[in-house]
Amino acid sequence: MKLNIIDKLVFNVMEHVRTAENDLSSGVDFALGFSKKNKISPASLLKLAKLCDSKQMFREEYIFMKACALLEQGKTQIEAFFLSGVLAYFLGQKSQALADFEEVVRLDPKHVNALCNQGIVYMELGQVAAAKKNYVQALALEPEHVNTHCNCANLAYKLGKTQTAEKEFKKVLELDPTHTNAHCNYANLLLELGREEEAEKHFKKGLELEPKHVAVHYNYAGLLKDRGRIEEAEEHYIKVLKISPGHTKAHCNYANLLAEAGRFKEASKHYRLALLLEPEDADIHCNYGQLLFNFGHYKEAETYFKKALGFEPGHVQTLCNYGNLLKQMGLFSKAEAKYKKALALDPKNTYAFYSYSMLLFKLKRIEAARNIASASARQ
Fold first, then answer.
1. Which residue, 44, 305, 319, 329, is the most exposed by fewest CB within 10 angstroms?
2. ∠ CA 92-94-100 to the nearest 5 degrees?
3. How many angstroms separate the Cα of 165 from the Cα of each of 72, 182, 192, 277?
């Protein structure tokens, strides 16, 4: 094959990805048509996919891998479809991932990994019955398939079936004591059950197995923060952000930790970084506004509270915090309006009840304040 034909294919695929980043299907159609016309072999497309993988060009990799799958036959075709599904999933193309895994199962009904991965996608799309069906099929074919047991545990945990989830996590770790994700997710379950010491053991084991595992560091930091071990928690947030600088939740929670410690400049920095990553996140705007309010930057705080409500008008925490700011600024009627709106949206919100009652006491509307306090106590 002439090199310039391959170069032309690669150039056009890269240009397609640049101009239509999320439209993978038309890129596949182009690569498939071009390959047929110029007699480019499936093996050559597979080599291009692997080259793109080494350069972290994952959209281009998907296009070449899928074109290979559509031209190839036999075991190579099945694995190319499977890898296409994996790539589509990590690129956020869940419907396409389902279709690719479905093709694998059509070609090889006993492909356990495809059944397992398809179940993951179904679970994330909220199609619980379909996910369960896939997991049952996978375990019927391979009763000790570790990842399927782990996914069953995750599904049970998500559905609030904690006993089933724990049983499955234990099964995973019995089959594979080095399964880091299972240690991490089991630790999260144990935390929810109030078994913090056991949870910490599993977080530590996870980090022993994979010292750079982002989810373990992140979740372990949360445990440490809740237990008042602030310096240790900070160490793990820093490690998360060193490994994954774009981890929005880590920026936000680390900022919360810094804010509680009174470290305004550092907290402000991480809220701003979080907002660069998620500029329309109402929670982050709310938290940053509260930081500014706490340190006396009232006008800036108001700006961020307004932005939060612009993105999510029914954001109860922001309504309460904004009400507190307005109260501090002496704008009592406006503050009251925010509290009333918060309670209309969430009639059981104790923070809204408390904030509103404090305003009423301040205004010497004692009977109204008592009524609000009584209503809160009945919730």
1. 329
2. 120
3. 40, 11, 12, 33
Q: How far from each other are the two terminal CA atoms of the chain, in whole angstroms?
A: 75
Q: Whose structure tokens read 């190579």?
A: 76
CB atoms within 10 A of CB 21: 11
The answer to whether 332 and 358 have CB atoms below 8 angstroms apart is: no
Torsion of CA 321, 323, 326, 328, to 10 degrees: -70
Sorted by where each starts, the structural domains of the chain and their CATH numbers stand as: 1-138 (1.25.40.10), 181-240 (1.25.40.10)
Q: What residue type is assigned to position 20 of the chain?
A: A
Region of residue 356 (left: phi > 0; alpha: psi -120 to 50; beta: else)? alpha
Average pLDDT, stretch 222-230? 97
Contact 369, 360 (CB under 8 A): yes
Mapped onto helix, strand or coil, the DSSP state of residue 347 is: coil
pLDDT at 378: 59
| Alpha carbons 196 and 199: distance in angstroms, whole number | 5
State the Cα–Cα distance between residues 48 and 63, nearest whole angstrom: 10
pLDDT tens-digit readout, 322-370: 999 999 999 999 999 999 999 999 988 989 999 998 999 888 888 877 7
Q: Measured between alpha carbons, how far is 96 from 75 in angstroms, rounded to an integer?
A: 21
Tokens of 84: 């296409």
What is the distance between the alpha carbons of residues 282 and 318, in angstroms, rounded to a whole number? 8
Tokens of 204: 């530590």
pLDDT band with cut points at 50, 70 and 90 for residue 1: very low
d(CA 102, CA 89): 13
pTM higher than 0.70: yes
Q: Pick from 325, 335, 327, 329: which is nearest to 294 by CA? A: 325
Tracing tokens 């099929």 back to the chain, one arrives at 137
Segment 160-171 mean pLDDT? 97
